[in-house]
Each structure stands twice: as C-alpha cells, then as structure tokens.
Amino acid sequence: MTENANSAPSSPAYKRVLLKLSGEALMGDDPYGINRQVIAQMCEQIAGVVQQGVELAVVIGGGNIFRGVAGGAAGMDRATADYMGMLATVMNALALQDALRAVDVVARVQSALKIEQVVEPYIRPKALRYLEEGRVVIFAAGTGNPFFTTDTAAALRGAEVGAEIVLKATKVDGVYTADPMKDPTAERYQRISFDEVMVRDLKVMDATAFALCRDQRLPIKVFSIFKEGALQRVINGEDEGTLVHV
Q: What distance in Å separates the CA atoms of residue 190 and residue 81, rounded to the nearest whole number?
C-alpha cells in the first residue's frame, strides 16, 4: 500500500473514507471558536482528495465551541451537557460545509438530531447516495445520544457507510511510544495492531470507538491535519501518521 516517496501514485489507496475532525482542530491557536484560516486550509486538503475521486464522509467534534461555555456547564446534568455538545457539532458542520463551498466542493450535512429547518436528518441510504455522487457528507450531532463521544460517532458512521478506513485527524502526527511533547526520545509507530494498542495502553480513541473499529475490522489512521499535504499522503497510502490495523 505504501508508494515510493519519489513518485506520485496513479490512484488513491482508498475509495471511501471517514475523516474524523476534532472541534479543537478548528480553533488553530485561538482560545475557542473557528479560525477561518485553519478551516480554509483543511478544506483545500479535502478538495484535493475529492478531486481524486475519493468518497469522503466527515464526523466533526464540538470542543472548540463547547469549551467556551464549559465553565457554565460545571455541575450540569451530563445528558444536558452532551446535548449542548451535539449542537456545537452542528454549528461546526455548517461552517465546514460553507468553507467547502468556497473551494467548489459540494457537501451535505446530516444530523443525528432532527433540526430540519437547518440540516437534513441522518438517513443512511441518502448518505450513501451522496457519497456515490461525489459529494462530501458531514455527519453532525454525534450519534444523537448522550454519553457517547464523536470518536464513537466516527466509528459508527464509518461502519455504516462502508468506509475502508477511519482517518483520525489530530494535532499530533501519529501514535508514539510516549508523549512526544514530554519525551524527546519518543518514536512514532508506522503501523501497530489493535491488540498492541491495548497491551501498551496507548490512547488512540475512546474505548467504545476503539472496540467498535476493532470488532468491525475497520482500520484507523492517526495523523496531523496541520502538516501540509498530510491528508493527501494518507489517501495515497504513503508513510504518514500511524496505521492501527487488525
């Protein structure tokens, strides 16, 4: 699957992928909210992938918005706080859809919560049709249930739409033997099995999301969305980030 670094691959390594974007990634260096330069850079990478004919679905988090009100949520009922977080993901999904439009990429937002005046409800057959038509599908509002993270939503939607891989875009360019910010000798894993991740207690996704990917034999690629061209290299099967495999 790995291509020679000196030659451009003739075709992508994957036909259909699920991209998980954290809400925090949209902040850039800002304390909260959406950094327009960051989201524009992400959309340029997504556009390049779509132009290759890759069918792309996205699950987006809401930490960049909910972080701004988290202080007021202290002591709040957990389910209520989780629903607030879900609504934050809808806002991010709309922002991403609008930014993709600016780079001539057609996207559809489907929400696990019904807000039909704003976005479509999640309907699996429609999502599959959109993907087949070359549109980006952005899944908002997580799973629609409290107590589940957007990582779990990414694993669930990835399995439902038949994605070949879940791409977890983070601020770190892979899974390391130790925290690279604290240990300069930490080394990046190029490939690692689900079992090894569990034995070494490495933090790739939350336990529910990780177990779902493992059970569905759905590989995970962890990479940095902030490295220029990283998403393209991942799609092309190059040595970028860390592949978690069965």
A: 37
Is residue 11 in a domain?
no
Q: What mean pLDDT comes out for the span 51-56? A: 97
Round to whole Å and give the CA distance between 94 and 165: 24
Domain count for the chain: 1
Strand 165-170 versus strand 136-140 pairing type: unpaired
> What is the CATH number for 205?
3.40.1160.10
Q: Give domain status of residue 6, yes or no.
A: no
Stretch among 69-73, 94-98, 161-165, 175-179 having the lowest mean pLDDT: 69-73
Residue 210 inside a domain? The answer is yes
Residue 182 clears pLDDT 50, i.e. is over it: yes
Closest CA to 167 of 28, 29, 13: 13
Rounded to two decimals, what is the model's pTM? 0.91
Q: Is the dihedral of CA 127, 93, 150, 224 positive or negative?
A: positive
Q: Domain range holding 149?
A: 16-245
| C-alpha to C-alpha distance for 166 and 183, rounded to whole angstroms | 27
